[in-house]
């Protein structure tokens, strides 16, 4: 199958969370959010290495996590860039030779299920690229940013909320990042860069517990998921 690398991006500032400490370092149960995420991938046999991308000022702290939590698959902790896409780009350069498949995952999504991750990887191995996603539950409107007038109501049956992991043949994701850089295109996820190449990307249905911890109201919800779905003890 070729080697499987994982890039965990955690170099964001968490401005929407509004805490002094970046959200990936906030405590969830007994451990920082980022450690929960890293342990998920550490414990997957098929993962050959994990590249951890963090803020320049947090490299030492994260090397500390690698030691204290015995995260032996983390081969590299490096500084990310200004945007998420830049951070993924840094991670791509650090993957070891012989890596054929890559999973890109947000450091602040600590609840992805192993079986969903595997389904996503399997689909990528069939067609080149796949992402976890869930059907949207709300009615979504396209709204004019200036006057707030509704412009259209897309058919909900075709709308999916996109998550991570996003799984790719490494050469495809590298090509997509190179092209985006040439065109100065900035996307909010990696799939959008691959879509620009005209390559197929499929969604794989995951679950609604795979939240991205983004704003303050996500924190109690994350604690609830941890204790009621993932079954970890409260500190
Ligand atoms: N320059 C950046 C920006 C984001 N991320 C990471 O990408 C993931 C998803 O991003 P998001 O939730 O938007 O995180 P932040 O950018 O930290 O949040 P905000 O937009 O509220 O500032 C997070 O794990 C975040 O750390 C990153 O590695 N490098
Ligand atoms: C990649 C992502 O998690 C998919 O939902 C998301 O796009 C990341 O980012 P954002 O920074 O909150 O847009």
From TrEMBL:
Site positions for Positions MEP for the nucleophilic attack: 156, 212
GO molecular function: 2-C-methyl-D-erythritol 4-phosphate cytidylyltransferase activity
Pathway(s) this gene product operates in, as recorded in its UniProt entry: Isoprenoid biosynthesis; isopentenyl diphosphate biosynthesis via DXP pathway; isopentenyl diphosphate from 1-deoxy-D-xylulose 5-phosphate: step 2/6
Enzyme Commission numbers on file: 2.7.7.60
Keyword field: Isoprene biosynthesis, Nucleotidyltransferase, Transferase
Broadest EC class assigned to this enzyme: transferase
Site positions for Transition state stabilizer: 16, 23
Pfam families assigned to the protein according to its UniProt record, in alphabetical order: IspD
InterPro entries the record matches: IspD (IPR001228), IspD/TarI (IPR034683), IspD/TarI_cytidylyltransf_bact (IPR050088), ISPD_synthase_CS (IPR018294), Nucleotide-diphossugar_trans (IPR029044)
Catalytic activity: 2-C-methyl-D-erythritol 4-phosphate + CTP + H(+) = 4-CDP-2-C-methyl-D-erythritol + diphosphate
Superkingdom assignment: Bacteria
Family that this chain belongs to: Belongs to the IspD/TarI cytidylyltransferase family. IspD subfamily.
Entry-linked NCBIfam families: ispD (TIGR00453)
Its job: Catalyzes the formation of 4-diphosphocytidyl-2-C-methyl-D-erythritol from CTP and 2-C-methyl-D-erythritol 4-phosphate (MEP).
Protein name: 2-C-methyl-D-erythritol 4-phosphate cytidylyltransferase
UniProt source species: Paenibacillus allorhizoplanae
């Amino acid at each position: 199958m070729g080697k499987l690398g994982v890039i965990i991006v955690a170099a964001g500032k968490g401005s929407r969370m509004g805490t002094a400490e970046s959200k990936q370092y906030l405590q969830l149960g007994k451990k920082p959010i980022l450690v929960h995420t890293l342990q998920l991938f550490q414990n997957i046999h098929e993962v050959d290495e994990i590249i951890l991308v963090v803020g320049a000022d947090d490299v030492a702290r994260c090397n500390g996590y690698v030691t204290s939590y015995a995260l032996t698959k983390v081969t590299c902790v490096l500084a990310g860039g200004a945007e998420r896409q830049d951070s993924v780009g840094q991670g791509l350069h650090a993957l070891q030779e012989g890596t054929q498949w890559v999973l890109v995952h947000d450091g602040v999504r600590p609840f992805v299920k192993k079986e969903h991750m595997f389904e996503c990887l399997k689909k990528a191995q069939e067609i080149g690229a796949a992402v976890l996603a869930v059907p949207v539950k709300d009615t979504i409107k396209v709204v004019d940013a200036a006057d707030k007038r509704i412009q259209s109501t897309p058919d909900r049956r075709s709308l999916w909320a996109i998550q991570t992991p996003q799984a790719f043949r490494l050469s495809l994701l590298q090509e997509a990042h190179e092209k985006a850089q040439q065109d100065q295109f900035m996307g909010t996820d990696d799939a959008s860069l691959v879509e620009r190449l005209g390559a197929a990307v499929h969604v794989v249905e995951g679950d609604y517990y795979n939240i991205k911890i983004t704003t303050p109201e996500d924190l109690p919800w994350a604690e609830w998921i941890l204790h009621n779905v993932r079954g970890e003890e409260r500190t």
